[in-house]
Amino acid sequence: MQPFSQTEPIIVLDFETTGLYPAKGDRVIEIGAVLLREQKIVDRFQSLVNPGFFVSREIETITGITNAMLSEAPPALEVMGQFVKFLDSHPLVAHNASFDRSFLEAELDHLGKKRPLNFGCTLQIARRLYPDVINYKLETLIRYKNIPVNSQFHRALADAEMAALLWFKIIEDLKSQFGFENITFDLMKKIGKLNKDLAFDLLLKEAEDSRTDQIGTTGNLFG
Fold first, then answer.
1. Which of 5, 17, 58, 117 lies deepest, with the highest CB count within 10 Å?
2. Residue ranges per structural domain of the chain
3. Distance between CA atoms of residues 173 and 192, nearest Å
4. Mean of the per-residue pLDDT values for the chain?
5. Do 79 and 47 touch, CB atoms closer than 8 A?
6. Contacts of 69 (CB under 8 A, 6+ apart)
7. Contact 13, 138 (CB under 8 A)
């Protein structure tokens, strides 16, 4: 099997948060991210984040992140400053990327750094590639594809690592099932936007095109 055609690193990230809506004041409480190069995880970033207020008992239960843990964590501005350096100008991937993108944009606003973001989404690609899955939660897809689980779901670094393994598996399936050769980051984004009802035929067409196109680059995170 040919390696994934990737000329620049990609970062897969995950946030644990105080709620669902950054526009209503919810904040990030944990960041996890992995740097991918040539289908390998080559670096990691993880930190708890003190949001400046107490989180609900529900969030403590879901994530296992307690208010006691967060009280000792560094503040958001400090962590985000370090995280921006880790992100560099790389493209990003997340599972349900619209959620993570909204929180990253909000945290960058707090940091005073407004920058356009370049995101790919494993959830949206999985909807096109695996139409018969009962749901598209990360845990469901990990088990559906028989990817070994050796970490706790709903912790940021563990979820980022598992999303990265899902990203690798999606690439493998695109090659074996449809005959893709040159798979670029832009192509992965395009697949995530295909018409779901026509996805199979469109994927065959995209695969045929990919066999004749030259390898592109992944593009930059920040414009």
1. 17
2. 10-210
3. 14
4. 90
5. yes
6. 48
7. no
Q: How far is CA 209 from CA 143, 187, 202, 212, in A?
A: 31, 11, 10, 5
What are the helix (H) ranges across 112-198?
Answer: 122-129, 138-144, 156-178, 185-191
Is 154 known to be catalytic?
A: yes
Instruction: Supply 212's token pair.
Output: 């004749």
pLDDT at 151: 66
Residue 13 tokens, joined: 């990230």
CATH of domain 10-210: 3.30.420.10
Q: How far apart are CA 223 and CA 181, in angstroms?
A: 28
Residue-wise pLDDT tens digits, 101-143: 999 999 999 999 877 789 999 999 999 999 999 999 999 999 9
User: Percent of the chain, pLDDT > 90?
Assistant: 76
Q: Please identify which of the residues 90, 95, 110, 154 carries the catalytic annotation.
A: 154
What pLDDT is attached to residue 29? Answer: 98
